[in-house]
Amino acid sequence: MLRFKLLSKVFATLVFVVGLLAVCGWQFDIEVFQRISPNLPIIAPNTAISFVFVGLFIFSLGWMKREGYNPLKVSILFFSLLVSLLGVVTLLEYFSGMNFGIDNIFFRGKMGGNVVRMSPQSAFNFAIVGLVLFLFTLRKKRQIFWGQVLIVAAGVTALVSLLGFIYGVTGL
Question: What pTM was estimated for this model as a whole?
């Protein structure tokens, strides 16, 4: 059990660092930080910010008190819903064809007139992951069960996208 907790902290740190490097890449115009590999697409600013929040909150879940008021718990609940909302609104942009302008909230001056939007798969995954973090933060058995069910959907989507990159299938 202790190994799984350590492993989750390592992966949470990795997610946080990748997001933070991408944010620094956008802030200081360092393209090598804006993508993990030269073969992969640029990490959109909203994706980078979401990575930072998700990594930070997964890491901090272990320090949260189980009962009573906890400012950490309140912040995780709020920002996990914010990450989820960012994913949902991005999906709405894709499905409706409208542009709500959320892609230019961060680093507007750095992108010029370009719209760098997170992919539909990323938007779907952040909508799910934000909701899962919200459910896990509640620390009730029923919510944790549904969070585990939902995270499998996000994992499958991520795996299909990863396989698409590995095999060069752009439709995935």
Answer: 0.85
